[in-house]
Amino acid sequence: MDTQKLEKLMKKIKVKNLLNADVEVENKSPLKMIGKGRQGAVFHYTDVICVKVFGNQEDCDREHYALSLGQHTDLFPKVHAKGKLYIAMDFVRGVDLREYLQSQPLSEELSNKLIQMLIVFKEIGYERIDHHKRQIYLQKDGSLKVIDVARTVWRDRVYPYPRKLLNSLGDDNKEIFLSHVQALSPQLYEEWLHYIRMEELSKEIYQVILNEEPDDAKKTEKKKALKTESNKLLTRDDEKNYVVLMEGLMHKVFKEEWVKTMLARGADPEAVKEEIDKYWDERELKSLGQGNPLTTPNSVTNQEAGRRFAGFREKNSHLETSTAKKTKSESKSKPKSKDDKKEVKVKDKKVGGGRKKYTGGKKK
After folding, report:
1. Domain ranges (residues) in the chain
2. Which pTM was predicted?
3. CATH homologous superfamily of domain 3-90?
4. 106, 176 contact by CB (below 8 A)
Protein backbone atom coordinates (compact mmCIF):
# COMPACT_ATOMS: atom_id res chain seq x y z
CA MET A 1 0.00 0.00 0.00
CA ASP A 2 1.31 3.44 -0.96
CA THR A 3 1.21 5.22 2.42
CA GLN A 4 2.78 8.45 1.06
CA LYS A 5 -0.06 8.84 -1.43
CA LEU A 6 -2.53 8.11 1.33
CA GLU A 7 -0.97 10.79 3.57
CA LYS A 8 -1.33 13.43 0.84
CA LEU A 9 -4.97 12.55 0.34
CA MET A 10 -5.68 12.65 4.09
CA LYS A 11 -4.37 16.24 4.29
CA LYS A 12 -7.24 17.26 2.01
CA ILE A 13 -9.89 15.85 4.34
CA LYS A 14 -10.99 17.64 7.52
CA VAL A 15 -13.32 16.00 10.02
CA LYS A 16 -14.79 17.91 12.95
CA ASN A 17 -16.57 16.38 15.92
CA LEU A 18 -19.93 17.85 16.90
CA LEU A 19 -21.84 17.57 20.16
CA ASN A 20 -24.42 14.77 20.00
CA ALA A 21 -24.31 14.70 16.20
CA ASP A 22 -22.44 13.10 13.32
CA VAL A 23 -19.12 14.64 12.40
CA GLU A 24 -18.81 17.58 10.04
CA VAL A 25 -16.73 16.78 6.95
CA GLU A 26 -14.76 19.01 4.59
CA ASN A 27 -13.53 16.85 1.67
CA LYS A 28 -11.22 18.36 -0.95
CA SER A 29 -9.81 14.98 -1.99
CA PRO A 30 -10.97 12.79 -4.91
CA LEU A 31 -12.07 10.10 -2.42
CA LYS A 32 -15.79 9.46 -2.12
CA MET A 33 -17.34 9.49 1.32
CA ILE A 34 -19.48 6.38 1.89
CA GLY A 35 -20.67 7.07 5.41
CA LYS A 36 -20.11 8.98 8.66
CA GLY A 37 -20.92 8.77 12.33
CA ARG A 38 -20.16 10.39 15.69
CA GLN A 39 -16.43 9.58 15.61
CA GLY A 40 -15.46 9.88 11.96
CA ALA A 41 -16.21 9.46 8.26
CA VAL A 42 -15.41 6.52 5.95
CA PHE A 43 -14.04 7.02 2.41
CA HIS A 44 -13.72 4.61 -0.51
CA TYR A 45 -10.02 4.08 -1.29
CA THR A 46 -9.98 0.91 -3.42
CA ASP A 47 -12.44 -1.89 -4.08
CA VAL A 48 -11.08 -3.75 -1.06
CA ILE A 49 -9.79 -0.95 1.19
CA CYS A 50 -11.56 1.96 2.90
CA VAL A 51 -10.17 4.75 5.05
CA LYS A 52 -11.80 5.96 8.22
CA VAL A 53 -10.89 9.56 9.12
CA PHE A 54 -11.46 10.69 12.73
CA GLY A 55 -12.20 14.03 14.30
CA ASN A 56 -9.69 13.56 17.12
CA GLN A 57 -6.61 11.44 17.75
CA GLU A 58 -7.94 9.71 20.86
CA ASP A 59 -10.81 8.06 18.95
CA CYS A 60 -8.40 7.06 16.21
CA ASP A 61 -5.94 5.49 18.65
CA ARG A 62 -8.74 3.75 20.52
CA GLU A 63 -10.20 2.24 17.34
CA HIS A 64 -6.80 1.08 16.12
CA TYR A 65 -6.01 -0.54 19.48
CA ALA A 66 -9.36 -2.36 19.57
CA LEU A 67 -8.89 -3.65 16.00
CA SER A 68 -5.34 -4.76 16.72
CA LEU A 69 -6.56 -6.97 19.60
CA GLY A 70 -8.67 -9.01 17.17
CA GLN A 71 -6.47 -9.12 14.09
CA HIS A 72 -5.80 -12.84 14.58
CA THR A 73 -9.55 -13.56 14.29
CA ASP A 74 -11.94 -13.37 11.31
CA LEU A 75 -14.33 -11.11 13.20
CA PHE A 76 -12.62 -7.76 12.38
CA PRO A 77 -11.43 -6.04 9.22
CA LYS A 78 -7.68 -6.24 8.52
CA VAL A 79 -5.75 -3.02 9.20
CA HIS A 80 -3.39 -1.83 6.42
CA ALA A 81 -2.16 1.54 7.65
CA LYS A 82 -2.62 4.08 10.42
CA GLY A 83 -1.97 7.80 10.59
CA LYS A 84 -2.59 10.41 13.27
CA LEU A 85 -6.25 10.76 12.34
CA TYR A 86 -6.99 7.86 10.00
CA ILE A 87 -7.01 4.07 9.69
CA ALA A 88 -6.89 2.19 6.38
CA MET A 89 -8.63 -1.20 6.65
CA ASP A 90 -10.53 -3.86 4.70
CA PHE A 91 -13.78 -2.79 3.16
CA VAL A 92 -16.52 -4.64 5.11
CA ARG A 93 -19.34 -5.66 2.84
CA GLY A 94 -22.50 -7.59 3.46
CA VAL A 95 -25.69 -6.49 5.22
CA ASP A 96 -25.83 -5.13 8.73
CA LEU A 97 -27.98 -6.91 11.29
CA ARG A 98 -30.42 -4.00 11.51
CA GLU A 99 -31.35 -4.31 7.83
CA TYR A 100 -31.29 -8.10 7.88
CA LEU A 101 -33.82 -8.42 10.72
CA GLN A 102 -36.28 -6.14 8.96
CA SER A 103 -37.05 -8.96 6.53
CA GLN A 104 -35.61 -12.10 8.14
CA PRO A 105 -36.25 -13.88 11.45
CA LEU A 106 -33.67 -14.21 14.19
CA SER A 107 -32.75 -17.86 13.90
CA GLU A 108 -31.16 -19.95 16.61
CA GLU A 109 -28.07 -20.30 14.39
CA LEU A 110 -27.69 -16.53 14.14
CA SER A 111 -28.20 -16.16 17.90
CA ASN A 112 -25.42 -18.69 18.47
CA LYS A 113 -23.10 -16.66 16.22
CA LEU A 114 -23.88 -13.52 18.22
CA ILE A 115 -23.01 -15.37 21.43
CA GLN A 116 -19.75 -16.54 19.81
CA MET A 117 -19.03 -12.92 18.89
CA LEU A 118 -19.39 -11.89 22.54
CA ILE A 119 -17.12 -14.74 23.58
CA VAL A 120 -14.43 -13.46 21.19
CA PHE A 121 -14.85 -9.97 22.65
CA LYS A 122 -14.22 -11.45 26.08
CA GLU A 123 -11.25 -13.56 24.99
CA ILE A 124 -9.32 -10.79 23.21
CA GLY A 125 -9.68 -8.38 26.17
CA TYR A 126 -12.54 -6.04 25.31
CA GLU A 127 -13.93 -4.29 28.36
CA ARG A 128 -17.43 -3.88 26.94
CA ILE A 129 -18.82 -7.25 25.92
CA ASP A 130 -21.54 -5.69 23.80
CA HIS A 131 -22.24 -4.17 20.37
CA HIS A 132 -25.04 -2.50 18.45
CA LYS A 133 -26.75 -4.50 15.69
CA ARG A 134 -26.05 -1.83 13.04
CA GLN A 135 -22.31 -2.39 13.52
CA ILE A 136 -22.55 -6.15 12.99
CA TYR A 137 -22.43 -7.33 9.34
CA LEU A 138 -23.57 -10.68 7.96
CA GLN A 139 -21.28 -11.97 5.19
CA LYS A 140 -22.25 -14.13 2.22
CA ASP A 141 -20.78 -17.20 3.88
CA GLY A 142 -22.89 -16.57 7.02
CA SER A 143 -20.00 -15.30 9.15
CA LEU A 144 -20.03 -12.02 11.06
CA LYS A 145 -17.85 -8.93 10.76
CA VAL A 146 -17.94 -6.00 13.21
CA ILE A 147 -16.91 -2.38 12.79
CA ASP A 148 -16.69 0.73 15.01
CA VAL A 149 -15.16 -1.06 17.98
CA ALA A 150 -13.46 1.97 19.59
CA ARG A 151 -15.94 2.06 22.49
CA THR A 152 -15.21 -1.52 23.53
CA VAL A 153 -11.90 -0.51 25.18
CA TRP A 154 -10.69 2.08 27.70
CA ARG A 155 -14.07 2.16 29.42
CA ASP A 156 -14.56 3.50 32.94
CA ARG A 157 -17.97 1.84 33.32
CA VAL A 158 -19.50 -1.06 31.42
CA TYR A 159 -22.74 -3.00 31.65
CA PRO A 160 -22.46 -6.54 33.08
CA TYR A 161 -24.60 -7.90 30.22
CA PRO A 162 -24.95 -7.09 26.46
CA ARG A 163 -27.46 -4.30 27.05
CA LYS A 164 -26.85 -2.39 23.81
CA LEU A 165 -27.18 -5.53 21.67
CA LEU A 166 -30.37 -6.67 23.39
CA ASN A 167 -32.06 -3.28 23.24
CA SER A 168 -31.06 -2.73 19.61
CA LEU A 169 -32.73 -6.02 18.63
CA GLY A 170 -36.17 -4.70 19.59
CA ASP A 171 -38.64 -6.24 22.02
CA ASP A 172 -39.66 -9.23 19.90
CA ASN A 173 -36.18 -10.25 18.75
CA LYS A 174 -34.85 -9.59 22.25
CA GLU A 175 -37.21 -12.21 23.66
CA ILE A 176 -36.30 -14.64 20.90
CA PHE A 177 -32.58 -14.13 21.45
CA LEU A 178 -32.94 -14.62 25.22
CA SER A 179 -34.92 -17.83 24.64
CA HIS A 180 -32.04 -19.09 22.48
CA VAL A 181 -29.57 -18.15 25.24
CA GLN A 182 -31.70 -19.97 27.80
CA ALA A 183 -31.71 -23.12 25.69
CA LEU A 184 -27.95 -22.97 25.13
CA SER A 185 -26.84 -21.86 28.62
CA PRO A 186 -29.48 -21.58 31.38
CA GLN A 187 -26.90 -20.20 33.81
CA LEU A 188 -25.91 -17.38 31.44
CA TYR A 189 -29.60 -16.66 30.81
CA GLU A 190 -30.33 -16.37 34.55
CA GLU A 191 -27.40 -14.02 35.04
CA TRP A 192 -28.45 -11.70 32.22
CA LEU A 193 -32.07 -11.82 33.41
CA HIS A 194 -30.91 -10.82 36.89
CA TYR A 195 -29.17 -7.71 35.54
CA ILE A 196 -32.17 -6.84 33.38
CA ARG A 197 -34.42 -6.98 36.45
CA MET A 198 -31.97 -4.85 38.43
CA GLU A 199 -32.04 -2.28 35.63
CA GLU A 200 -35.84 -2.22 35.63
CA LEU A 201 -35.85 -1.78 39.41
CA SER A 202 -33.39 1.11 39.06
CA LYS A 203 -35.75 2.77 36.59
CA GLU A 204 -38.65 2.40 39.03
CA ILE A 205 -36.60 3.93 41.84
CA TYR A 206 -35.65 6.80 39.55
CA GLN A 207 -39.30 7.48 38.78
CA VAL A 208 -40.08 7.61 42.50
CA ILE A 209 -37.28 10.12 43.02
CA LEU A 210 -38.37 12.09 39.97
CA ASN A 211 -41.95 12.31 41.23
CA GLU A 212 -40.70 13.63 44.59
CA GLU A 213 -38.94 16.57 42.99
CA PRO A 214 -42.13 18.60 42.33
CA ASP A 215 -43.12 18.11 45.98
CA ASP A 216 -39.76 19.46 47.08
CA ALA A 217 -40.25 22.39 44.74
CA LYS A 218 -43.70 23.00 46.25
CA LYS A 219 -42.20 22.94 49.74
CA THR A 220 -39.64 25.53 48.68
CA GLU A 221 -42.39 27.73 47.19
CA LYS A 222 -44.45 27.38 50.37
CA LYS A 223 -41.48 28.49 52.46
CA LYS A 224 -41.00 31.52 50.23
CA ALA A 225 -44.70 32.36 50.46
CA LEU A 226 -44.67 31.92 54.25
CA LYS A 227 -41.66 34.22 54.52
CA THR A 228 -43.57 36.88 52.60
CA GLU A 229 -46.77 36.33 54.58
CA SER A 230 -44.89 36.51 57.89
CA ASN A 231 -44.18 40.18 57.20
CA LYS A 232 -47.80 40.81 58.15
CA LEU A 233 -46.80 40.11 61.77
CA LEU A 234 -44.35 43.02 61.81
CA THR A 235 -45.57 46.04 63.85
CA ARG A 236 -42.75 48.57 64.27
CA ASP A 237 -43.22 50.29 60.91
CA ASP A 238 -46.58 51.73 62.04
CA GLU A 239 -45.49 54.24 64.71
CA LYS A 240 -48.96 54.92 66.16
CA ASN A 241 -49.78 51.25 66.44
CA TYR A 242 -46.33 50.58 67.87
CA VAL A 243 -46.94 53.06 70.72
CA VAL A 244 -50.30 51.46 71.52
CA LEU A 245 -48.75 48.01 71.55
CA MET A 246 -45.91 49.17 73.78
CA GLU A 247 -48.43 50.67 76.22
CA GLY A 248 -50.24 47.34 76.36
CA LEU A 249 -46.96 45.49 76.91
CA MET A 250 -45.89 47.82 79.75
CA HIS A 251 -49.36 47.53 81.28
CA LYS A 252 -49.08 43.73 81.23
CA VAL A 253 -45.57 43.72 82.69
CA PHE A 254 -46.50 46.31 85.36
CA LYS A 255 -49.52 44.27 86.41
CA GLU A 256 -47.59 41.00 86.65
CA GLU A 257 -44.62 42.49 88.50
CA TRP A 258 -46.79 44.48 90.94
CA VAL A 259 -48.84 41.38 91.75
CA LYS A 260 -45.57 39.57 92.55
CA THR A 261 -44.51 42.44 94.79
CA MET A 262 -47.84 42.57 96.68
CA LEU A 263 -47.82 38.79 97.08
CA ALA A 264 -44.38 39.03 98.65
CA ARG A 265 -45.90 41.48 101.14
CA GLY A 266 -48.79 39.13 101.94
CA ALA A 267 -51.54 40.90 99.97
CA ASP A 268 -54.63 39.26 98.52
CA PRO A 269 -53.74 38.65 94.80
CA GLU A 270 -57.32 38.88 93.48
CA ALA A 271 -57.92 42.16 95.27
CA VAL A 272 -54.64 43.54 93.91
CA LYS A 273 -55.57 42.61 90.31
CA GLU A 274 -59.02 44.20 90.75
CA GLU A 275 -57.56 47.49 92.01
CA ILE A 276 -54.94 47.57 89.22
CA ASP A 277 -57.56 47.06 86.52
CA LYS A 278 -59.74 49.74 88.12
CA TYR A 279 -56.77 52.12 88.18
CA TRP A 280 -56.00 51.63 84.48
CA ASP A 281 -59.67 51.90 83.49
CA GLU A 282 -59.87 55.31 85.23
CA ARG A 283 -56.72 56.46 83.36
CA GLU A 284 -58.14 55.37 80.02
CA LEU A 285 -61.36 57.30 80.66
CA LYS A 286 -59.40 60.44 81.48
CA SER A 287 -57.30 60.05 78.34
CA LEU A 288 -60.36 60.19 76.10
CA GLY A 289 -60.77 63.93 76.69
CA GLN A 290 -57.25 65.26 77.32
CA GLY A 291 -55.06 62.71 75.58
CA ASN A 292 -53.29 59.81 77.21
CA PRO A 293 -49.81 60.81 78.34
CA LEU A 294 -48.68 57.19 78.15
CA THR A 295 -49.35 57.14 74.39
CA THR A 296 -47.19 60.20 73.85
CA PRO A 297 -43.49 59.28 73.67
CA ASN A 298 -41.25 60.88 76.31
CA SER A 299 -44.22 62.75 77.89
CA VAL A 300 -43.66 61.22 81.35
CA THR A 301 -40.33 61.58 83.13
CA ASN A 302 -38.90 58.83 85.31
CA GLN A 303 -39.40 60.99 88.40
CA GLU A 304 -43.06 61.67 87.57
CA ALA A 305 -43.64 57.96 86.87
CA GLY A 306 -42.10 57.18 90.25
CA ARG A 307 -44.40 59.58 92.06
CA ARG A 308 -47.48 58.14 90.33
CA PHE A 309 -46.43 54.61 91.19
CA ALA A 310 -45.82 55.53 94.85
CA GLY A 311 -49.23 57.20 95.04
CA PHE A 312 -50.89 54.15 93.57
CA ARG A 313 -49.15 51.89 96.09
CA GLU A 314 -50.09 54.14 99.04
CA LYS A 315 -53.69 54.36 97.88
CA ASN A 316 -53.98 50.58 97.82
CA SER A 317 -52.05 49.76 100.99
CA HIS A 318 -55.32 48.56 102.57
CA LEU A 319 -55.09 45.48 100.39
CA GLU A 320 -52.69 43.83 102.80
CA THR A 321 -54.49 40.92 104.46
CA SER A 322 -55.16 40.67 108.17
CA THR A 323 -52.95 37.62 108.27
CA ALA A 324 -50.02 39.67 107.01
CA LYS A 325 -50.72 42.42 109.63
CA LYS A 326 -51.02 39.79 112.34
CA THR A 327 -47.70 38.36 111.33
CA LYS A 328 -46.15 41.81 111.60
CA SER A 329 -47.59 42.44 115.11
CA GLU A 330 -46.43 39.03 116.29
CA SER A 331 -42.98 39.68 115.03
CA LYS A 332 -42.79 42.81 117.26
CA SER A 333 -43.68 40.96 120.50
CA LYS A 334 -41.53 37.88 119.87
CA PRO A 335 -38.16 37.81 121.55
CA LYS A 336 -35.51 37.85 118.89
CA SER A 337 -32.75 35.32 118.78
CA LYS A 338 -29.30 36.02 117.43
CA ASP A 339 -30.38 34.61 114.07
CA ASP A 340 -33.52 36.75 114.06
CA LYS A 341 -31.46 39.87 114.59
CA LYS A 342 -29.57 39.22 111.39
CA GLU A 343 -30.88 41.30 108.58
CA VAL A 344 -32.37 39.43 105.70
CA LYS A 345 -31.33 41.45 102.72
CA VAL A 346 -33.83 41.82 99.96
CA LYS A 347 -33.18 43.41 96.56
CA ASP A 348 -33.76 47.19 96.72
CA LYS A 349 -37.05 48.33 95.24
CA LYS A 350 -37.18 51.62 93.41
CA VAL A 351 -40.32 53.43 94.64
CA GLY A 352 -41.35 57.05 94.12
CA GLY A 353 -37.94 58.07 92.88
CA GLY A 354 -36.23 56.84 96.09
CA ARG A 355 -35.09 53.51 97.56
CA LYS A 356 -36.38 51.64 100.64
CA LYS A 357 -34.71 48.56 102.08
CA TYR A 358 -36.82 45.77 103.60
CA THR A 359 -35.32 43.77 106.44
CA GLY A 360 -37.32 40.90 107.80
CA GLY A 361 -40.61 42.51 106.76
CA LYS A 362 -39.91 45.73 108.77
CA LYS A 363 -39.49 49.10 107.10
CA LYS A 364 -36.53 51.26 107.95
Report:
1. 3-90, 95-184, 186-230, 234-320
2. 0.59
3. Phosphorylase Kinase; domain 1 (3.30.200.20)
4. yes
